[in-house]
Amino acid sequence: MLPADFAAPVRAIDAGKANIEKSGSGDLPVRRYWPAVMAKGGKLIDPLASLAPYYRWVQTSNYVASPPNPTFLPNYGYVVLAGPGGLVESTELALGFLLLGPETHYPSHQHPAVEIYVVAAGTAEWRKGDDPWRVEPVGSVIRHETMMPHATRTLAEPLLAIYIWQGDLKTNARIIAS
User: Fold this and answer.
1) CA 137 to chain centre
2) Taking the CA atoms of the chain, what radius of gyration do you get in angstroms?
3) Domain 4-13+22-168 top-level CATH class
4) What is the pLDDT of residues 24-82, one digit of tens each?
5) What percent of the chain lies above the pLDDT cut of 70?
6) DSSP secondary structure letter of residue 130
7) What DSSP character marks residue 83?
8) Which of 82, 83, 146, 174 sits 20 to 30 Å CA-CA off 92?
9) Model pTM?
10) Longest dimension (CA), the chain
11) Measured between alpha carbons, how far is 178 from 109 in angstroms, rounded to an integer?
């Protein structure tokens, strides 16, 4: 269940204003895991399947300019459903999903937006600051406050996590030294 400060803006998204004209571009290598994730099904995954032809897969520009390691970019990508550049434009929040390939380390990073992740599929370890790594099962809600360093590393299967950002939506995440 989403915290109240995120639930209301998500409910306010008007899906009827989706701009499917700018759809289907930006295919990325990580999309090779999409069929396996969709095959798992589930209440968080099934609604995403019908929109798949309209997705524009993207990567954070500063990660593209300076990847954290050689295997990261082929195993990383996300889709903005609502927010700046999304299927539905919004300046109030960014809502979409992150897809990470198996055995991928998304190193410690931070951003000014407050972020919620909801684990939709896959097994991964999550870390906040210097806390120990912990496995979060499907359905877990993970919150990162403004500028909270956090990291994710997938295990043997791909990870699909729904994300929601509020606050500063213009400033990209930045990898930080760990």
Assistant:
1) 16
2) 15
3) mainly beta
4) 567 899 999 999 999 988 888 888 887 888 889 999 999 999 999 999 999 999 999 99
5) 88
6) T
7) S
8) 174
9) 0.91
10) 44
11) 9
**What's the confidence (pLDDT) of residue 24?**
57
Find where tokens 């571009």 sit. 25
CA distance linking residue 107 with residue 167, whole number of Å: 22
48 within 8 A of 161, measured Cβ to Cβ: no
Q: Which of 91, 116, 170, 148 is nearest to 7 (CA)?
A: 116
Q: What is the dihedral of CA 107, 123, 13, 170, to 10 degrees?
A: 0
d(CA 137, CA 121): 8
What single-letter amino acid sits at 65? A
Residue type, 45: I
- CA dist., res. 143 & res. 98, Å (int): 15
CB 116 within 8 A of CB 136: no
* Residue 24: its H or E element: none
Q: How far is CA 38 from CA 15, 47, 52, 101, 152, in A?
A: 21, 10, 10, 14, 21
